[in-house]
Specification:
Elements (H helix, E strand, L loop, with lengths): L3 H10 L8 H8 L14 H14 L4 H10 L2 H12 L2 H20 L4 H7 L3 H14 L5 H19 L4 H32 L3 H13 L9 H28 L6 E7 L4 E11 L3 E6 L4 E5 L3 E6 L12 E2 L2 E2 L4 H5 L24
Antiparallel strand pairs: 1-2, 1-5, 2-3, 3-4, 6-7
């Protein structure tokens, strides 16, 4: 009976038609085992984000933190975290598959990055592309197309090394066609970005389609290990901090303005509504102070817009702004209304209860 080493040598000497490639055997053989404990860490990261978000909202005050934990629904917090971080998953899946396959084709050696790429099923990669297409902003869609084409080209090179026609179509013809089509469709937005001197948006719209043609093949083996593992480690380190910063700024409570009577004077309290019942309304001010206001003193209340929704650039493609995703562009939106004076801290003479 042949040992594993002997079977690996036979696979290396085969003609490639019936026997599995040597790399495929080596990658399966080198795969680590008994790492199911890593799955227990998956719920920990969202939980830490939820606690840190409440700690940030309470301005590091323990009593305010306990009040928020008691009154805020965990489902609402989890929804805010999921909606904020859903755009990260396609980047991690496509990036891991791209870097792992690129390392294997360039060096022929296995590593933790190659094993991670092998454990990503094809349907997960396709689903990640669909999620990214729906949730990523317009200015990031060329990057999504670049990564998707690179993954497709490298996968064809890895799994079908003898199909020259298929490799020519997927690795060369398709990226060129997508690049030309992208420049034609995005040309109005590219011109608007350069006109508005929005350098970041202009680079995101012009650079990825051209790079997609260059990322469907291996790189020199001497630099492949440092390049792929360096990018992967950088993504692993930066992504949690980036997600944390975004979640820290995500709204978890409705922003309202209450106009109240204060000794024959009118005062407007702008803050986040923590709780409200028949007698009292609890409001968390922007500075972190909690106020308990009797409902008898409230003359009116109004829901204020989220300050974080103000666009940073007005570059658009036929009304589709570069900071909008496909879902937000296609979904019906309310007509914009003038900002109420009470949301700016100014009282009105004849308030209408909202």
């Amino acid at each position: 009976m042949k040992t594993d080493r002997g079977r690996e040598d036979d696979a290396r000497e085969g003609d490639g038609r019936n026997d599995p490639p040597a790399g495929r055997v080596r990658r399966v053989k080198d795969a680590p085992r008994n790492q199911e404990w890593l799955l227990t860490l998956l719920p920990a990261f969202p939980l830490v984000l939820l606690v840190m978000r409440l700690w940030y909202a309470s301005r590091q005050d323990t009593q305010t933190l306990l009040l928020l934990v008691q009154t805020i629904s965990p489902l609402g917090l989890l929804s805010a975290v999921l909606l904020t971080t859903v755009w990260v998953l396609p980047a991690l899946v496509l990036g891991g598959r791209l870097l792992g396959t690129l390392h294997w084709l360039s060096t022929g050696r296995s590593s933790w990055l190659v094993r991670a790429a092998e454990r990503l099923p094809g349907w997960v990669v396709v689903l990640s592309v669909v999620v990214g297409l729906c949730t990523w902003q317009l200015r990031f869609l060329p990057t999504l197309a670049m990564m998707s084409l690179a993954v497709a080209g490298l996968t064809v090179r890895d799994r079908y090394p003898g199909h020259e026609g298929l490799r020519a179509v997927v690795c060369y013809a398709l990226p060129v066609a997508v690049a030309v089509l992208s420049y034609v469709l995005l040309w109005p937005a590219v011109v608007a970005a350069f006109t508005a001197r929005d350098v970041a948006t202009a680079i995101l719209l012009t650079l990825p389609p051209g790079l997609g043609v260059l990322l469907t093949g291996p790189v020199p083996g001497a630099s492949a290990g440092v390049l792929t593992h360096g990018i992967a480690i950088g993504m692993s380190v930066i992504t949690p901090f980036l997600v944390g910063v975004v979640v820290m700024k995500a709204p978890i409570l409705p922003l309202i303005a209450l106009q109240i009577e204060e000794r024959e004077a009118q005062e407007v309290v702008v803050g986040y509504l923590v709780a409200s019942d028949d007698q009292m309304s609890t409001v968390l001010g922007r500075e972190g102070a909690v106020r308990f206001i009797s409902n008898d003193r409230i003359r009116s209340r109004v829901l204020c817009p989220d300050p974080g929704e103000v666009p940073r650039t007005w570059v658009n493609l036929h009304g589709w702004y570069v900071e909008q995703s496909v879902l937000s562009w296609l979904a019906p939106t309310a007509q914009p209304e003038p900002v109420d004076q009470r949301c700016q801290g100014r009282a009105v003479d004849d308030p209408v209860s909202g």
